[in-house]
Amino acid sequence: MAMHQSVEYTEATAEVRAVYDDIMATRKTDWINNFWKVLANDPVTLRRTWESIKQIMAPGALDPLIKEMIYIAVSVTNQCPYCVASHTASARNKGMTDAMFHALMAVIGMANETNRLASGYQVEIDEQFKQ
Fold it and tell me: What is the pLDDT of residue 2?
């Protein structure tokens, strides 16, 4: 059971509806997912988070699919099932195949393992890796 109520479009204030409308227009969809509905309990956080994610996830130096795959990696590492599901769906919509997903999971698992080993052993950084 969710700790906070979802704010449905029909129950939303004008301020929240404006953000919902922008989300739907930007994503070319006719629905709002639960993440945004829960954030709508705090309209300031809803708007700030939406504006930030809209800017960060827009096309730029990194391809949108690569950004989604990075988001998946961080979400797996942070153990956020909602974000893993949401961004996996988005990555699949942007062209991620099953083979790409499996390769991504392998990289995430290996990176987490070797990160913990390097951290636990307190491995000194090689001079060649320092900038």
Answer: 67
